[in-house]
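INFO batch 0412 | record 1 of 1 | parsing
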Amino acid sequence: MLSTILVANRGEIAARIIRTIHDMGLRAVAVYADQDLDSPAVALADEAYALGGTTLADTYLNGDRILEIAQRAGVDGIHPGYGFLSEVPEFADAVAASGIAWIGPSGATITQLGDKIGARRTAVAAGVSPVPGTNDPVESIAEIRAFADSHGFPIVAKRSDGGGGRGIVILRTSDDITEFEARHAGLGGDLGAYFLEKFVESARHIETQCMADAHGNFAVVTTRDCSVQRRNQKLIEEAPAPYLPDGVAETVAQWSEALFRQTDYVGLGTCEFLLDNDGSVYFLEVNPRLQVEHTVSEEVTGLDLVAEQLRIASGETFTPVPPVRGHSIELRITSEDPGADLVPTAGTITSLEWPTGHGVRVETGVRVGDTVSPDFDSMIAKLIITGPDRATTIARSLRALRELTIGGIATPKELLADILRHRDFADEFTVGTRWMETVYLPNAALPAPFAAVSPVDDGGSRRCFIAEIDGRRHEISLPAEFFAPAGNGTGVVRPQQPRRTSGRSVSAPGAASVAADGVLSAPIQGTIVRVSVEVGQQVKKGDVLLVLEAMKMEKYVHAPADGTVAEIYVAPSQNVPAHTALIKLEEDR
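INFO prediction complete | emitting tokens
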């Protein structure tokens, strides 16, 4: 069995993994960005090392730095959690090459499944049926029009490297294809990153939690349903998947095993499928890692899936899967505002009371006094509610939401409660992946927008001093607030807690603002997906200058007039706050 595990993640993910490591009598090593120095996950670990930075690129996506720390700390295993580096085959290979156990499938397996085009090819080779579509990158707009003529509208263009609902464009008309061409087929475009599928208008999202060990054993732990989604982002997950038509559970189990066998998969993973209204089942993708919703599968089987990962990575066989008992629902608690199109809110958590009682499990990475910002993503906790049957679990979930109190930031707790009470979810279960947008939200009584909060400090103000501890020189870095008088009776103000994953955050209407000097500023906080121009380039009014991604949607920044690109202030993958200067355009006179 492995003895010392580095957890290459943060927040509630890292805390959840570290607890299992300790349950097994092993040692846990944490890594942290500057903002996470005082986070609960770091406090739980036996040792913690600074990644040295505040951005994703410098910290949780910095594989070289993480591997350097792992070697320094003498660990024999690295657990990537989910998100960040968990699906980067080059990092998995680098860890294995260093002699440290990678707690996940091999780099070769990830390569076969991580890219969506590759996953479709793998599925076909395994005898598994994906959604009707193409298995090669799009080469021309004519190809898209031909696909629409052949399959009929609507169709969907998907980025092959997309994940978590990102990079999905639904095309319903010929005009939509023309607009897609303008945004993706020009200079600096990314047309070749997309492939095509027939868009399944109304379908459930179901999945299997699977595991396989190096001894040839395979098992489906449970099925799950994740159909309650907003912009392809899951809000509510449950296990087992309820109300499946006859034969569907057997089909997805057989297909899941075929996919694992085809890719020599060793570890835990999730196979995702669409269940159409007519009973047809289509393969979507394999997530070669642990997922957020793994907890509901644990609750109805009694297994600890992180422990199973550690056993498999140590060369052992996995634990036989017990029969499913009862029902479990996971509710994602985010800092998003239901009254403002689920825009994330920033601020300090002024009060916090988690629900307790029978069948209630809470996983979180925040405390009272922590502040949250849109640096990573908006999920701050998960409520996992379990009962003897689905009806009891729904009732218990509603009770838990009533007990939950979070002050200082907006949360969707009331929206989640309303969904749980809705007859489409609670009684008839007619929800699909588009139900939120097409049925629920148009008829929901949403609250007023959450009151605006003052901007939070970025946690960058620190003071350093030298100290000798056990005869060894140490440079100690502390937040500047540590030295300030406590004015609120709570002692030290904790540094800002950024949130998980890739910085996909605020989504709001509006175009980029243009200053008198021609500088275009970001209309929203988001991540730069693509810069479509270069300095000195002539552009026409309406040309796409760059693309921002926020809340799983792309926001296009267009040229407000004919002119020349004078300066570019940002780069792809950069996370920018609202009103950040993007590009300077010198207008033609």
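INFO post-check: The first strand starts at residue 4 and ends at 7.
INFO record closed
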